[in-house]
Amino acid sequence: SKKLILDQDLVDQVKPGDRVKCVGIYRAQGSKNMASSSGNFKTHIIANGIKILGRDACSSAITHEDIANIKKIGARPDILDLLGRSVAPSIYGHDHIKKA
């Protein structure tokens, strides 16, 4: 997968997870501090045209097992604490904001 930048009429034609074929400009973006750069560049594509090959609708289907697991987790007395720890786990603290 590659970062794809869509502008103007191409915006909102696709959603994350869609398989697409695109035509565009492949760009490399260097570090802001080039003196200490390791030579690694972030790359992306600025799209000129896009064609949807397929939407991944199958992966979003909720099964009976998923529903049972959701109900099981929802019945826990510490559900708010669990959800608070699950939202942005790399950010320490601010639990009251995560639970809001």
TrEMBL record:
Q: What is this protein called?
A: DNA helicase
GO cellular-component terms in the record? Answer: MCM complex; nucleus
Which organism is the protein's source? Octactis speculum
| GO terms for MF | ATP binding; single-stranded DNA binding; single-stranded DNA helicase activity
| UniProt-listed InterPro entries | MCM, NA-bd_OB-fold, P-loop_NTPase
Which Gene Ontology BP annotations are present?
DNA strand elongation involved in DNA replication; double-strand break repair via break-induced replication; mitotic DNA replication initiation
